Amino acid sequence: MTDRADSSGGTTAPPAPRSAAPATGSGGRGGPDGGRGGRGDRTPRLPGRRGTGAPRPRRRSLRSRLRRDWQLLLMTLPAIALLAVFHYTPTLGNIIAFQDYNPWDGVIGSPWVGFSQFERLFTDARFWSAAGNTLMIAAIQLVFFFPIPIGLAILLDSVLSPRMRLLLQSIVYMPHFFSWVLVVTLFQQILGGAGLFSQILRQNGYAPLDVMTNPDAFLFVVTSQMIWKDAGWGTIIFLAALAAINQNLYESAAVDGAGRWRRMWHITLPGLRPVIILLLILKLGDILNVGFEQFYLQRDAFGANVSEVLDTFIYHQTLVTGNFSAGAVAGLVKGIVGLILIVLANKLAHRMGENGIYRRS
Amino acid sequence: MPPTPRRPAPTRRRFLGLMGASTTAAFAAGALGACSSGSSAGGGGGSASAATSLDDLIPTYIPFDGVAPDIEGLHGAPSGFTSYPDTFVQALPNPPGSGGHYTAMTPLWGPVPPGLGNNSFFDYVNERIGTTVEFNFQDGDTVIDKMNAVIAGRDVADITMFPDWTINLIPQFNRAVGELFEDLTPHLAGDAASAYPLLANLESDAWRWNVFNEKLMGVPWPAEPFGNWVLMRQDILDELGIDPPTSPDDLFAIGEEVNDPDNNRWAFGDFNLSMRQVFGAPRLWRYENGELIHMFETEEWRASIEFMRRIYDAGLMHPDVVAKADNSKELLNSGQIVFNQDGLGAWNEAYAQMLGENADFRLDLMPVFGQGGNDPVMHKSDPSGQSVFVRKGMDPAQVEEILGVLNFCAAPFGTREYMDYRYGEEGVHHERNDDGAPELTDLGNSEVNDGYYFISGRPPAITESQYPDFVQWKTDWYNHAAQYAEEDPFAGIRIQRPERFSAAETPMTDKVEDIIRGREDLSQLDQAISDWRRDGGDEGREFYMGVLQEHGRD
Fold first, then answer.
1. Are strands B291-294 and B285-288 parallel, antiparallel or unpaired?
2. Same-domain check for residues A332 and A229
3. Does A113 touch chain B (CB under 8 A)?
C-alpha cells in the first residue's frame, strides 16, 4: 500500500484522481494558508471572530434577527416539535425520582418522598460498584477503543484501489450490524471453554482457554468485542474528514521533503483534529452509557462484581422489583454527570482553540 | 405447542424466574383453615390475598367424567393418555353462545395469524361456540411491557388474559384488578358453577389462586404440579450401560463416567434449582418452632450449592453453561451434555425437534431422590399458570355469555370441543394421521392459533402419545415424584412480595452464581446471607410472619 502523497509522487504528477473531487470542495478554506497546517486555516474559516483585527459587527436586535432568519427558524420547527414530543416531554417524567411511584396511581397520584430515593441509591454499595465498573470500562474504551477507528480510517484511506477500498470498508463495517447476542455467541464459540481454540488445545493435550468466564479477562474480552464490532463503523466520520483535507498540502509537503510520518503528523492529524475533539466531547458526555446489551448478556458469565454497569443495575432495580423511582433516580444522576462532563469538555475544547460541539455566538 | 403459557427462559430473563419462584403454591385443599380474613398491605408495598373462607368463593368441584384417562395421576399428578381416542366426546350439547361479539386480548408466541374476517379457523370455532370472539394478540416475548401499559391505561379487552408471572410483576395489580374487571363470584361461587360444567371441572387450588381482595376475579389455567426438573439423555446412558442415579453421590459418579471433553461431551448443565429439592431445601420459607427460616438460611440449601460447586471444580459442567450461554437445550439435544435442567415442556419440544433426524433419541426425567436417606422436597409450581378476566361494567347476561365461551374453551383433552378450539375443523384445518393424532393442513398452519386455548384453562394432562414411551415415562415419573411435594406454610395465599425483599435477592443470586462458577469461595456465603438479612431479608420475614398470623397458621 502506498501513501497518497507518494502516489502523486513528484511535483508535476496530478493528484490521485479519487481524491481530486473532495480536495476541490475544501480547497477554498485550506488554500490561503497553504502548508502551515491545520491550525493555520482557522482564520479564514471564521472571519471576524478573532485575530483579524476587523471590528466586530454590532449585535442586531432580536426583531431584526427574527426578520432575517425566520425562514430558517421555520425549517427547524418540525425537528423541534419532534424533540419536544419525544424527548423533552418524557424528560419531565423524571420527577418520579422524587416520588414513590407506581404506574397505577400515575405521576399525579403517587406520593412524594423528597430525596429519600437518592439517599437509598447513594448508600447502596452495589450502585457504587456499578458506577466504578462503568467508569473503568469507559476509561478503557476511551484509551483503547477510541483511537482505533482513527488509525483504521487512515489505513483505509491509504488504500488506492477504489474497489479494494470498498470491499475492505464493507468487511469492517459489517459486524456493526450484528446484534450483541450474535457477537457474544461468536466469541463464546471461538474463545469459550468449549470453543474452537479450547477444543484444539484440549485435543493436543494443553489446558483450554479460560477467558470467557474469567473475571480478570472481562475488560479484555468486552473491549475486543467492541473493537471487532464497531471499529469499522467508527471510521465513517473520520473517512469523511480525511476526504476533506486539501490534497495540495500533501503535495507541497512532499515537495518540501516531508516523509510519510511527517505528513501524517503535520497534515492528516491536524486535519482530523476538530472531528476528533468533537467526538471526544460527545463520548465524554456519554461516558456513563457504556452499553446495556453486551453487559447484560455476559453478566452471569463473568459475575456481577466486574460486569454490573449502571445500565444493568438500573434494569435490575426497576424491572425486578417494580421500583421505577429508583431507576429514574439512577438515570437522572447519570444524565447530570453526563451534562457536567460535556460542558467541561466543551470549555476545554475552547481553551484549545477548537469549536467543540457548540459555541455561544 | 407449549403445554402451559410459556414464560421466557429463566436463563435469559432471570428476573422473571425469580419472580416466579417468589409466590408460593396452593397446596392441600383441606389444610386451609377457616379464620378471619382480610387482605393486607404490609410494609414496603407487599400484599397477600386471604386464603381463608376461600371455599365459599370458588366453584364447587364437579369432575367431568366424560373422558377416562389411560393412566391415572396419583398425589395430584396429571393423568396420561397413551393414544388419541377414535371418537371424541361431545361435552356440550349445544353451542353455548347467544350471538354476542366480544374482544379478547392474549399474548401469542409465534406469528400472528390472519384476523377475524380473513380466518376460517376463527369463523369455524366462533360458530361452534355461538359467539364471535375477536382476538387482539400481544407479542408473548414483550407481553409484560404491554400489560403494564394496558393496566396503567385502563385499556382492557372484554376478555383479558394475564400470564401469572406478569401479575407478579405489575405493581398494584391487586388494586387494579378490582377496578378493571368484573367480580365473578356471583356467577361462579359454590353451586353457581354447575351452569359451566367444564369450568367446575378445574381444580380448586387453581381457583383459589384467582381470588383477589376476597373476590373471585379470574378463570385459572390449572398448572402441572412441577415446573422444572433434570432431563437426561437416556439413549446415551443406555449405550454406556449406566443406570439412572439414585443419590447425589451416584449422580456425581455417573457425571465423572460420562464426562469426555476431548470428544466434546460434558456431563452436566446447570441444575441448581433441582439440587435444592434433592437436598431438601424449602422453596421459599420453612416454618419451624414458630419461626420462619428462609431457603438461604438452611443447611440443605448450602449443601446444594456445595454440590454444584463440586461439579464445577471437577470440570463436569459444560463451559458454555458456565458462561451462561443460552444454548443448553441444543447442547443436550446434540449430546454435548447428558444431564440438564429445563422446563418439563422441553422434553416434548426436544422430541418434536430431534426424533425426525435421530429415531433413537431418548430423554427421560431423572428419578427423584434425596440426600443421605432423606426424602427430597419437591417444589410445587403456582397452581394456576395464567388468569382470564372479564371487563368490568358488562350486563350480567354478557358476563354469562363470556363465561359460556370460557367454559367451551375449558373442554379437556378427549372432547370434540378441545379438538375444535385447538385444531379447527377436521378435513379443513387438520387431518388425523394413522395414530389418530391431528396434523395441521397448510391452511391450518397459517390460520390455527392458540387464542382460544389461552382464554381458558383445562386440567393438565399428558397427551403426547405420538412420541415413543413418552406418556408412560412421564406419568411414571410424576406418580413417583408427586408424593414428595413440599408442604408450604403459605399454600393457597397469593402474595405480592415487599419490594425490598425482592430487591435483596439479586445480590444473593449473583453471589450463588459466583460460587457455583468458581469465582468466589463458599465461605463468602455467610457474609452474603447477613447482607441479605439486612437489605430486605428480615423485612420480608416480618412481612411473611404477619401473613401467617393473619391467617391463623402460626
1. antiparallel
2. yes
3. no
Residues 206-225, chain A: which have Cβ within 8 Å of B? 208, 212-213, 215
The domain boundary residue, chosen from A98, A132, A154: A98
Task: Tell me the C-alpha distance between B195 and B175, whole Å.
Answer: 29
pTM: 0.78
How far apart are alpha carbons B335 and A251 in whole angstroms? 64
State which amino acid sits at residue A315: Y
Query: Is A151 part of any domain?
Result: yes
- Residues A50 and A127 both lie in one domain: no
Same domain assignment for residues A202 and A341: yes
Instruction: Decide: B271 and B480 in contact? Cβ < 8 Å.
Output: no
Place of cell 459486524: A175
Which DSSP string do the residues of B446-512 spell out, in sequence order? HH--SHHHHTS----EE--TTSTTHHHHHHHHHHHHGGGB---TTTT--EEPPHHHHHTHHHHHHHH
Q: Considering only alpha carbons, which residue of chain B is nearest residue A324?
A: B171
Low-confidence ranges of chain A (pLDDT < 50): 1-53
CATH of residue A265:
1.10.3720.10
A19 in a structural domain: yes
Predicted ipTM beyond 0.95: no
Q: Is residue A104 in some structural domain? A: no
Residue of chain A minimizing CA distance to B515: A303
Q: How many domains does chain A have?
A: 2
Same-domain check for residues A74 and A145 = no
Fill in the DSSP letter of residue A257: T
What are the pLDDT digits (tens) for B161-209? 999 988 887 877 888 899 999 999 999 999 999 999 999 999 988 998 9
Residue A360 lies in a domain: no
